[in-house]
Amino acid sequence: MGNKVFISPNQYVQGVDVVDEAGTYAKDMGSKALVIADEFVWDLAGNRVVDSLKQENIESVGTTFNGEASTGEINRIIEEAKSEGADMIVGVGGGKTLDTAKGVRDQVPGACCVIIPTTASTDAPTSALSVIYSDEGVFETYRFYSKNPDLIIMDSKIIAGAPPRFLASGIADAMATWVEARMAIQANANAMAGGLSTIAAAAIAEKCEETLFQYGLLAYESNKRQVVTHALEQIVEANTLLSGLGFESSGLALAHAIHNGFTVLHGDIHHMTHGEKVAFGTLSQLTLENRSKEEFEKYVDMYSRLELPVTLEDLHLEQASEDDLMKVAKAALTEGESSHNMPMTLTAYDVVSAMKAADQYAKAYKKENGLA
After folding, report:
1. What residues does the Alcohol dehydrogenase iron-type/glycerol dehydrogenase GldA domain cover (predicted)?
2. Which of 1, 84, 184, 210 is deepest in the core (most CB within 10 A)?
């Protein structure tokens, strides 16, 4: 048996208007902050973060994120942080901004990292890793760090004001957590935390899924009205904290590998969010696991109600050729991919067959239920 490992951020804070308390929670972490946000997020939350830091006598300099979590962008901001003498790296915005902030902190000795998401669209905020893309947006690699962010601040009011599509995407990303974790645990695979899953991580991953099915649809409707409700708060936590801890300390599997495989294709699929692509990956994994019709349809039903893609056509891939799907499958099976955490040996043919079958099963479900 190998070693069990569980990792997590130092502190997680969630609530209404909590972004205005960023300085209160970060005041003992450093004296000069480099705040990273894109142009839109600067107006939405970035300036509020800077004001809050100033109230606690933390000097701040800002930089505008250029849109891609690439090695070039990370290196550009590292130079800014070092020239400014920043000892606190603050990322405000979406997943790629946050992954960039983590990448910058890793190369600024002694700096701490504060992560302030403006959506609950992925489980990236809590993790000690970044997903690195090329400047053109093609998945390149996972970059792992020696520690998780020091502080996560989730402002549920800002998240309630974001487009509901982002919350639905976060639910889809989080719904993969237990589906993938249980396979990685079965395979006795090392998680991204660097060891086997703990009881705690598995329990968190399972509770994540339970919470999503219990509150996901109510939270989605709350988001449509831009109101913070108990259901929304539950889903913000499930999408971010539960899913983040669950995937990182229990393991990913085929669903995320298929998502990464999709990045090799061209066309409208690149307008789909991370979670939307993960949703189809999850259905493909469930198919490959030989799950029952009832279990498969439980996920298809949930995704459909959240207006998430369940077929290749929904992903703008109705014209995808056999060769295209084979490229996706081969990319999903490259060395180091999370697909190798499945408790069986897979071929590209297996993955393509699972994707086609998942597509067909979901089409049949939509037709049966008048959703086609």
Report:
1. 9-155
2. 184
